[in-house]
């Protein structure tokens, strides 16, 4: 192992599914620690679960991490001095060190079949004992064990756990101790030749000079086995930092039943990466001083320390994430937000595949109108309904419009408005609209909501909505564009409303 004092951390996902927010937070904390200390970030792919590992998951994980803003100094795609960075390419290395442990008497061959182990487990459970391995093969003569294996008998390799408590330091939790009886002798290499997680992670971390192992607390119970392996192999034990569990509002570990949980989910929803980074950083870590909640990635790099990571479970609050996302959407460069929004409109069939500049200029007005009312960008499509999908019949029958349309002068207001609009077929402008409404006001003697709400229902199907000064140009300009879904202008909306009323 390297003798220099450079901090080296790693993020080591398994490509068996999508990148979960818990793993994303682990990657983030490793990255923040590496960047804060000027250390090295290593990405390693733990794909020894050959049945479940898929290259498509690896590709998506790498893409999600890059979207998230995480970069790495060594890894399967960038190379490095400790290659290869996929465990499936390192099987010979694991075999070599396992056999060394056997030769040194620190590990032994185990010939117990799966059926035997399961029977022993059932007996232990029936006798209310911990279902630990009995150690029956530990006392076999090594020379006899080698002869049996050489003759073709299937044999796994087990680590001989030392007869003393196993202790290690955890930056988050302090000193941690496990009794050796609670660990038993773990298999490190299966009879099939495939190594187990607790073994390969130690070999990889040691040979890749990892100084700090930062990971979720679901690995805490694995750590004594790994510490015993470091000691058996004669390698320094790294510093550990086990991060708290992320839970849902019910206190249970965050899962799909709580809603979106993967980075891919949040990307699809239109959560900005800087909002998710900001939010996840605060799930289990507290900055110094005050109650500040908004941090750029650069500010997080300067502030982050492992000593301020808490062992308490962190509750995932979707509303808090949305609050941050609204902040970043509003603060983001309009051109960027418009470009991101464009993809949602195209996917929904509201824009052509390759919008021209005129269409993009119009979309910028649509986005500016709607963005203040959304938590995430995919909500823009529903909000855009008032522009693209006005159902006059539904507006007339909607219960929340009933009071407005049933008001004493509502029909008089709408008739006067229609008379003014139909008297001049020119495109509507904000100034012309104001003049028309002043005429309607004078003619009907109405004002405020009694004047504007019935007219708003004609425009949007609802008595509430955006300012007319912003909405009217969008409708008029949109009606002139060649869009997959036609945008109705003022004349067309009024005609549709009158036709629905006549039915």
- Oligomer type: single chain
Quickly give the structural class: mainly alpha
- Overall 3D shape: elongated
Number of strands: 11
State the helicity in percent bands. 40-55%
Note poorly predicted spans: none
How many separate helices? 22
Kindly report the average pLDDT value: 93
Q: How large, in whole angstroms, is the Cα Rg?
A: 32 Å
List the helices and strands and how they pair.
Elements: E1 8-11, H1 21-37, E2 40-43, H2 55-68, H3 91-103, E3 107-110, H4 114-126, H5 142-150, E4 156-159, E5 166-170, E6 174-178, E7 187-189, H6 197-207, E8 212-216, H7 223-233, E9 239-243, E10 246-247, H8 263-269, H9 273-281, H10 297-303, E11 314-315, H11 318-331, H12 334-347, H13 357-370, H14 379-383, H15 385-388, H16 392-397, H17 399-405, H18 410-422, H19 430-444, H20 448-460, H21 468-478, H22 490-502
Parallel strand pairs: 1-2, 8-9, 10-11
Antiparallel strand pairs: 3-4, 4-7, 5-6
Please tell me about this protein's structure.
By secondary structure, this protein is mostly helical. The protein contains 22 helices and 11 strands. It has a 3-stranded antiparallel β-sheet with strand order 3-4-7. α6 crosses α7 and α9 crosses α11 (318-331). The chain is elongated, with a radius of gyration of 32 Å.
Summarize it.
With 503 residues, this protein is mainly α. It has helices at residues 21-37, 55-68, 91-103, 114-126, 142-150, 197-207, 223-233, 263-269, 273-281, 297-303, 318-331, 334-347, 357-370, 379-383, 385-388, 392-397, 399-405, 410-422, 430-444, 448-460, 468-478, 490-502, and strands at residues 8-11, 40-43, 107-110, 156-159, 166-170, 174-178, 187-189, 212-216, 239-243, 246-247, 314-315. The chain is built from 22 helices and 11 strands.
């Amino acid at each position: 192992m390297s003798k220099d004092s450079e901090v080296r951390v790693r993020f080591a996902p398994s490509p068996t599914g999508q990148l979960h927010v818990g793993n994303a937070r682990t990657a983030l904390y490793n990255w923040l620690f590496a960047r804060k200390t000027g250390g090295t970030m290593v990405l390693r792919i733990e794909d020894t679960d050959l049945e479940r590992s898929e290259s498509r998951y690896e590709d998506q994980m790498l893409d999600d991490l890059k979207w998230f803003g995480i970069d790495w100094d060594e890894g399967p795609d960038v190379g490095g001095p400790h290659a290869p960075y996929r465990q499936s390419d390192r099987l010979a290395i694991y075999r070599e060190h396992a056999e060394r442990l056997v030769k040194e008497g620190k590990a032994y061959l185990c010939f117990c079949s799966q059926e035997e182990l399961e029977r022993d487990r059932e007996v232990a459970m029936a006798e209310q004992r911990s279902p630990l391995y009995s150690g029956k093969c530990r006392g076999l003569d090594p020379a006899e064990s080698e002869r049996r294996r050489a003759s073709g008998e299937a044999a796994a390799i087990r680590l001989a756990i030392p007869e003393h408590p196993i202790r290690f330091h955890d930056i988050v939790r302090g000193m941690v101790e496990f009794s050796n009886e609670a660990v038993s002798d773990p298999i490190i290499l299966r009879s099939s030749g495939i190594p187990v997680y607790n073994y390969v992670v130690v070999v990889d971390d040691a040979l890749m000079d990892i100084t700090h192992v930062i990971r979720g607390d679901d690995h805490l119970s694995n750590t004594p086995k790994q510490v015993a392996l470091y000691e058996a192999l004669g390698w320094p034990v790294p510093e550990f930092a086990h991060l708290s569990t992320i839970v849902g509002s019910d206190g249970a570990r965050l899962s799909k039943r709580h809603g979106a949980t993967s980075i891919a989910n949040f990307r699809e929803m239109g959560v900005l990466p800087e909002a998710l980074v900001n939010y996840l950083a605060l799930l289990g870590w507290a900055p110094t001083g005050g109650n500040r909640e908004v941090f750029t990635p650069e500010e997080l790099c300067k502030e982050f320390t492992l000593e301020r990571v808490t062992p308490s479970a962190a509750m995932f609050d979707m509303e808090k994430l949305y609050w941050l996302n609204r902040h970043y959407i509003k603060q983001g460069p309009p051109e960027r937000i418009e470009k991101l929004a464009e993809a949602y409109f195209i996917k929904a069939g509201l824009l052509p595949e390759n919008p021209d500049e005129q269409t993009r200029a119009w979309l910028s007005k649509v986005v500016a109108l709607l963005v203040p009312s959304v938590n995430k960008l995919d909500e823009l499509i529903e909000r855009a309904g008032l522009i693209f999908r006005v159902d006059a019949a539904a507006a007339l029958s909607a219960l929340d419009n009933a009071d407005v349309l049933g008001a004493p002068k509502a029909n008089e207001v709408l008739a006067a408005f229609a008379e003014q609009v139909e008297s001049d077929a020119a495109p509507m402008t904000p100034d012309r609209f104001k003049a028309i409404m002043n005429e309607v006001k004078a003619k009907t003697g109405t004002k405020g909501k009694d004047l504007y709400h019935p007219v708003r229902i004609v425009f949007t199907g609802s008595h509430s909505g955006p300012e007319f000064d912003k909405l009217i140009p969008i409708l008029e300009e949109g009606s002139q564009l060649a869009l997959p879904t036609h945008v109705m202008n003022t004349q067309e909306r009024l005609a549709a409303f009158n036709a629905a009323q006549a039915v």
